[in-house]
């Protein structure tokens, strides 16, 4: 089991599960991040926050805490 936070730059991964609850999970889903969607990791800030990703053609920034709630394969 791997989370988005552990994915190195330049890799594309597929979302398997969202583990957050309530408003946090809703915020992640509002970004278009749902089970089965592919995420490309473009850039990770030096301290790991934020993580810049591409989802469904959109470029987004995800906080490290949110990235830990996105399980990928």
From TrEMBL:
Please state the span of the N-terminal signal peptide per the UniProt entry. Answer: none
| Domain (Ferrous iron transporter FeoA-like) ranges | 2-73
Has UniProt tagged this entry with the keyword Isomerase? no
* Keywords annotated in UniProt: Iron
Its protein name is Ferrous iron transport protein A
Q: Which lineage is the organism of this entry classified under, starting from the top rank?
A: Bacteria, Bacillati, Bacillota, Clostridia, Lachnospirales
Stored SUPFAM superfamilies: C-terminal domain of transcriptional repressors
Matches recorded under PANTHER family: FE(2+) TRANSPORT PROTEIN A (PTHR42954)
| Species for this entry | Catenibacillus scindens
């Amino acid at each position: 089991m791997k989370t988005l936070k552990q994915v190195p730059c330049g890799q594309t991964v597929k979302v398997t599960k969202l583990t957050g609850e309530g408003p946090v999970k809703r915020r992640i889903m509002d970004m278009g991040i749902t089970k089965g969607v592919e995420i490309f990791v473009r850039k990770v800030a030096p301290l790991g926050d934020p993580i810049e990703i591409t989802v469904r053609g959109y470029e987004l920034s995800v906080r490290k805490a949110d990235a830990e709630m996105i399980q990928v394969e």
